[in-house]
Fold this sequence. Notes:
The structure is a single chain. The protein is α/β, with parallel strands linked by helices. The protein folds into two domains: 7-174, NAD(P)-binding Rossmann-like Domain (Rossmann fold); 181-286, N-(1-d-carboxylethyl)-l-norvaline Dehydrogenase, domain 2. Helix content is 43%, strand content 13%. Helix 1 links the parallel strand 1 and strand 2 (30-34). 42% of the residues are buried. Mean pLDDT is 90; it is low at 276-294.
Amino acid sequence: MRKKEPSILVVGLGQIGYHDAEYMTSRGLNVDGYDIDPKTVQRAIDHGIIRKKAETFEGYDCYVIAVSTHNPTNMLLPSFDALFQTVYRLSIEGKRNALVTIESTVKKGMSRRVEEILGHRLHVAHVPHRFYAMEKEEHGVRQTRVLGGCENCCRRKALRFYQEVLDIPVHIARSIEIAELSKVIENSYRFMEIAFAEELKMFCEAYTLNFTELRDAINSKWNVRILEADHGIGGHCLPKDSQMYVDLTKRALVSSIIDAAKMVDGHYKLRLPQAPSFGMILPSRLLEINATSN
Length: 294
């Protein structure tokens, strides 16, 4: 007898939640969706990505939270209002013993705060999204993901969901804090790589050197890959995620290389013919780690 498939609610149907739902539906799962934007919900319904809009959060076996965690008025800064609005609603309507998996990028300690609000009536796991829109087949929803749970039971429940139901490979983090930091720091590292390319380009301009020729010469070494420097670091994820890391370093370190990288990026943008808007989409080469919104 075939095991009953879980009912799933994807909360947040931006690019991450949309593609999560698309992947789950393609596997024959029962997926509903919720988003504060009615047009976003209707698009998902029209494309056959979800069955229907969830009018209530009651009765689902798994809640996948994929809401944005950037400040709506300044995409360079993090904000967790949408996340906690979702969690407070789950504390009232969420099904007991269901799984809450947070795919949105969060700062250290936030998943345990979610667990406190829910009173451990639901199992809480953090599985930060990884998705590259330009290479959906190789680096789409089904790629190795870091997974951590607030408690052992949470981790076991999330493992069953991602490995057995979704067939997504996972790297198991022993603590949920490691899962939280993995996403923040991988994007901070990417920010630093791009900022160094920007710094090198400004250096070349100051000394009337050809940046492309110098970059190609350096990249001829097998273990070096300096990126291109284009329109500055924008998009939804790299600026705000790296800011989360910088905020954390202030409690532990005298200085941060990422803080310096942010200064470099700011100087670089001032030299551009037209400063990019916060919402601009960078060339795909600069978005290999995180191409889309949370």
